[in-house]
Amino acid sequence: MTLITTTTTAARQILFLQRSARRQRRLSTLACSSTALAAAGKSATRCKRNNDLLNASKATTACWVRTKATVPAHGQSTAKAAEASRTTASSTSIASTLSQSFLGIIAGVFTVGAAATIVEQSTAGSVPEFDPKGSRFSQDTFQGRFCKMLLGCDPRLLFYSEADVLRAKEMIDNYQEFLAAGKDTNIPMDIHRTLWEAYRISSAALHPDTGEFIPAPCRMSGYVPCNGPICAAMVVSSSTPSLLFWNWVNQSQNAGVNYFNRNASSPMTNETLIKSYAGAVGAALAVAFGLSTFVNRRYDPVRAKQVMRFVAFPSTVIASSLNCYIVRSNEIETGIPMLDVDGNSVNIPNNADGNSQIAAAKGVYSTVASRAILNVPVLFLPPFLLSNFPLCQRMIAKNPAMATPLTMFLLLTCFGIGLPAAVAIFPQIAEIKVEELEEKFHHLKDENGNDIRVLYYNKGL
Question: What angle do helix axes 357-388 and 403-424 make, rounded to 10 degrees?
Fold first, then answer.
């Protein structure tokens, strides 16, 4: 019984142990499963997180690629826009400068015309009796020559039509009839002033030697208004091509002025004219191009662009003198006619030519000198007035935009007043001693049998 009980107890204990072992295995299995599940969950979470990061990385990479591909295009577009903006701003600036320059030019031309009007009216009460071979003003003094040239450079003379000029010329040709009619009908003494005005109108448009019409841009009265816009364009030129172009335009007009105001008694063939024009303009462009090339090589682009504005004037000084000499050098080769005290051509014995190369050279050299002197007031007076004249300083300080039109106004005014002043330095009808001329002029006698000691010549303008 005890054995059975023990055996039964042992069996129970063994059964309990077996059950406990099975329970422990189940719990261990559950624990392992829970741990595996937890690990699997963590692993899944990590995988999800890694996938998100990978996807995010891929998205970031794609965005970066798209940005990298877009930025250069945007940069190029911005650069093109900036360049277009700079070009537009530059064009606007040049257009604004030109418009302001033209305002100054108009004011300058008006001032020159007003100065001529003042001189004409202020001397109206003291006009001498009309003489087509004489002058309204004394040509023995600089003041008289200046007044004559200032009235001849009056821009208002351009407004007279060809019919008006021809009527004025007819009045001069028949001046004795007008004077006689004035005496018979008691016309006031201002008939002489009327005749001097008619003489001024006709002589401003007609060449004194040929009687042909001078083109308006090549007349002395058209020099200031026609050359003013060219000067404005030269001032705003900041590149070599533009400077060369406007120098060509300027020197072409200068060549026309020199040709049409020369002493036309010396013949000039078309071939000589073309060679003279090509030589004059070519020399002027060579000077302008040489100076601009020197500036571009000597300075950096920004500084060179500023300095180029000042190249126009010295190049014009040299080129205008060369232009005048080359165009009129034909006169030195052929000579010009010599005149007696009454303005008649001198008769040389044995049918010798009455032309003098020595007198021609003197006339050309004096004209070249006047062209060079003309640039002095244009070069120095405007900067001097802008720097030292209080009114100019106040105007620019109050409104800086006034600098351009004020500069052009002073430039044109100085040019319009300086032109007659430069030409008036040398008399147009100059005298020369016969000892200074060729041998054929040394033993001439007048109609009374007296030795001729002085002869005269027209040096041109």
Answer: 150
